[in-house]
Write a structure and sequence with these properties.
- This is Transcriptional regulator AbiEi antitoxin N-terminal domain-containing protein.
- The protein is built from 13 helices and ten strands.
- Helix 6 links the parallel strand 5 and strand 6.
- It is elongated.
- The protein has two domains: 50 residues, no CATH class; 176 residues, no CATH class.
- By secondary structure, the chain is of the alpha+beta class.
Length: 276
């Protein structure tokens, strides 16, 4: 009886691993143990090569080809890390901005309430053509934005892969403005706003209400005024908590007297209706 039962146990172990960790996904050791894989079986899978160690405590199936979409999906699905791809990455996926492919690594902007995992950059070495930039959201969003995935969608992109976990355009653009002018230039932010002709007024209002960054909210309102899209005409900046006092965003820039932010002189001159 024991000779017959051993193959069944091995097969059951293989099925358990395939079910827990589909091809292309990554998982943490702690998550695998918490979801039914015994320590002995996990260690045996590593020794036999069925599990490939990507970084300390992080694994994928042998021969799995990794992409950033599945890695980001894995954060919440098999690592208990609330996270999504947002900012410029999400806007690129929606076609609002183009990323460079001429030998440059694409930066995947990841947003989470938790600090960057110590193993993230080691994991990134196994994902061709990209690197990850981690953003802790405590100064940008109320916690529920990430934890309840408010302003986040699961977007199918391949029949054989998990859906992309992406910020909606309304969410992503506010995240992008939080990076002006350090990672993102005023000019780039202005160019993207020009193309955002079909945002949802309801979702814009929702995300501005959940945003904690006074800088990002003032920049959003200022750029929305500049381009005067139809969706903005149904909203009022009076409904947005813009804080008090001046904010120096552009060193040596001009002070916009409505939103009390400094902006590049070239863009200030283009301000509509002569509002100063």
């Amino acid at each position: 009886m024991s000779d017959v039962s051993r193959p069944r146990t091995a097969a059951a172990g293989a099925d358990t691993l395939s079910t827990l960790l589909p091809m292309g996904m990554v998982a943490s050791r702690a998550w695998l143990l918490a979801h039914g894989l015994s320590k002995d079986r996990l260690d045996n899978h590593v020794k036999s090569g069925r599990l490939r160690k990507l970084a300390r405590g992080v694994f994928c199936q042998q021969h799995a080809a990794l992409n950033w979409e599945n890695v980001v999906a894995s954060f919440s699905l098999s690592m208990d890390i609330p996270a999504y791809a947002g900012g410029l990455t999400a806007l690129e996926e929606y076609g609002y901005s183009q990323y460079l492919t001429l030998g440059a690594q694409r930066v995947i902007e990841v947003y989470s309430t938790l600090p960057e995992p110590s193993w993230l950059q080691a994991l990134a070495e196994h994902v061709e053509g990209v690197r990850f930039r981690w953003h802790k959201t405590q100064r940008l969003w109320q916690p529920e934005v990430v934890e309840q995935q408010i302003g986040v969608i699961h977007r199918p992109w391949s029949p054989s892969a998990n859906a992309q976990v992406l910020a909606r355009a309304e969410t992503a653009y506010i995240e992008l403005l939080h990076e002006v002018p350090g990672q993102i230039s005023f000019e780039h932010a202005d160019e993207i706003m020009q193309g955002l002709t079909s945002l949802s007024p309801r979702k814009v209002s929702q995300m501005l209400a959940h945003c904690k960054s006074i800088k990002a909210k003032r920049l959003f309102c200022w750029l929305a005024d500049r381009h005067s899209h139809s969706w903005w005409k149904t909203l009022s900046d009076q409904e947005v908590d813009l804080g008090k006092g001046k904010r120096v965003i552009e060193q040596g820039g001009r002070l916009d007297k409505r939103y009390l932010i400094t902006v590049p002189a070239s863009l200030y001159q283009d301000y509509p209706d002569g509002k100063t």
